[in-house]
Amino acid sequence: MAFTLPPLPYPSDALEKAIDKLTMEIHHGKHHKAYVDNLNAALQGQDALLNTPVDQLMREINKVPEAARQKVINNGGGHANHTMFWEIMGPKGGGEPSGPLAEAIKSTFTDFANFKAKIKEAGLGRFGSGWAWLVASGGKLSITNTANQDSPLMHGQTPLLGVDVWEHAYYLRYQNRRGDYLDAWWNVVNWDAVAKRFASVK
Fold first, then answer.
1. Cα–Cα distances in Å, from 175 out to 29, 35, 59, 170, 178?
2. The domain 21-87 is classified under which CATH number: 1.10.287.990, 1.10.3210.10, 2.40.30.30, 3.40.50.300?
């Protein structure tokens, strides 16, 4: 069974506090769709891989035939990364996390403000296209960034929160002001969704 583009979990204009409607429509309907289509094309005829959940596919990237592997990294990563991205945002987002996730962030990064600063630093520090991440690995939290559509899953890490810093994610509203986009993005983070991801790796 081929991979499919998941629908947005909210209307395309629901995240206007940070991301405009047109950007959402292009980002989801054009960019994410292209990753899905290209992933299916790269794995055409390989039914076992086409039936593998995308997160598992990225975790087990070395099982993908070498001839197709880079295309799967680019497009499977794009599919996995964006599927998570839509899920961890929402129109009622913003504020701060609570419960075990908040405690883990505080114990790892001192406080929430420092955590946000570190994510921004990771996003600004990624030259060109990529992502800034909060990941879990070995029972510990850390912040990292990756190039292009590389997924932390390929490195044995579980992404809990990720912010897309490709220009197509923010350019229509923010032009070259990536920092302004990263600041505004916190207004749409769905902390309940992030907390569920955190709970699943404990």
1. 20, 23, 34, 7, 8
2. 1.10.287.990
